[in-house]
Amino acid sequence: MRNLPAVSRREPRAVEERLKAGSAIAAWSIRPATPQDAPFLPDIERSAGEAFRQVPDLAWIADDAVLSEERHLQLMEGGAAWVAVHAADVPVGFLSGEVLDGNLHIWELAVSSDHQKRGVGRALIARAKQWAAQRNLSAITLTTFREIPWNEPFYHSEGFRTLGSGELSQTLRGILADEVEAGLPAERRCAMRYELSGH
User: Fold this and answer.
1) What's the whole-model pTM score?
2) CATH number at residue 150
3) How many folded domains does the chain comprise?
4) Residues near 132 by Cβ (< 8 Å), separated by ≥ 6?
5) What is the pLDDT of residue 176?
6) Residue 44 scores a pLDDT above 80
7) What is the pLDDT of residue 1?
8) Higher per-residue confidence, 169 vs 10
9) Cβ-count burial 37-50 (b if 16+ within 10 Å, e if not)
10) Is the alpha carbon torsion for 160, 169, 176, 5 positive or negative?
11) How far apart are CA 136 and CA 134, in angstroms?
């Protein structure tokens, strides 16, 4: 996660106004992401990234690159992309993944800062688990920060297991290497795996 090219920091007025308009609505649901959602997702990831300002040595992550609209569109084509939306269909969170090596790999999970700690992220993960199981995939994988409460410990609470260096596939090794090349500290990163039933 957070290992892809940077995108513009500009926030189109329409995006900002739509996000604000949805903030007063309490109900939300999960649905497949559509191309119309793509312009809103980078801003959601930036909002989620503000949490890193609480961690002095990782505060710069709040200003780091996010997935571009183009990358989101590519992932949507594979079908492993979902959004959490308000009753007014305003996105407040998303999960974007891709099938790699027979597993669903989560590239990014993000929830807008003012909608966190409401179960949105867990609901997105539940949808991803359901989707992967229906397709008879072996597992769900991801890379994340060690020990940061909303990263590794959060995924542990969802049944993910941190992989040792000897358990890493070539694909996961490559993803971690790309992250380090992009500036993320190797000693703070890890890969995790959730085994799906029957595998």
Assistant:
1) 0.85
2) 3.40.630.30
3) 1
4) 103, 104, 139, 140, 196
5) 98
6) yes
7) 53
8) 169
9) bbbbbbbbbbbbbe
10) negative
11) 6
The torsion defined by the Cα of 88, 52, 65 and 141, in degrees rounded to 10, comes to -80
Tell how strand 103-111 and strand 81-86 pair up. unpaired
Give whole-number Cα distances, 191 to 82, 91, 98, 179, in Å: 22, 27, 15, 11
Mean per-residue pLDDT of the chain: 88
Is residue 96 situated within a structural domain?
yes
Say yes or no to pLDDT of 93 above 90: yes
CA distances 75 to 54, 94, 114, 141, 145, Å, are 30, 12, 25, 15, 22
Q: Is residue 5 part of a domain?
A: no
**CB within 8 Å of 23: residues ≥ 6 apart:** 114
Q: Note whether residue 175 is domain-resident.
A: yes
Range of the domain at 189: 28-195
pLDDT at position 197 is 77
Q: How far is CA 60 from the centre of its chain?
A: 18
Asked whether residue 77 is domain-assigned, the answer is yes
d(CA 22, CA 29): 13
* CA 112/CA 178 separation, integer angstroms: 26
